[in-house]
Amino acid sequence: MIRTVIPAALTVALMVIGGLHLIWAFSPWPLDDKVSFTRTVVGSDSGEMPPPALSALVGLALIAGAALILMVNETLPAIGPGWLRTLGVYGLALVLLGRGLGGFLLNSGATSEFQRWNNALYSPLCVALGLLGGAVAIAASKR
What we know:
143 residues; mainly alpha; 5 helices; 71% helix
């Protein structure tokens, strides 16, 4: 399961979330407008979208993380030394866990829409993805 289901689920989730961030570099989709987007996704009432380059960078980093998971799982051809790929997956897991656990601190001063979504989806999803990434990293360390 750690070599099949977990990496596949983690890869799909990271690709979808990364794709959303790439879309957000240009559009507030799937929300109707920038104000709705910033209230729900950013946590502010400003209506000012995050810088496109930052959204694109986060999106590309998530997609690269998905590719790294597939490399460590030996589904994609590997690039670089194995220890570095494994270290990268540990780093990915820690970043996701950090966003998930630290994300609850983001609620302070944020809009009620963001708080609701952050408590119900954003932070728990990041914790779950971080735990899945940790499982893949530990399995890779044992090979």
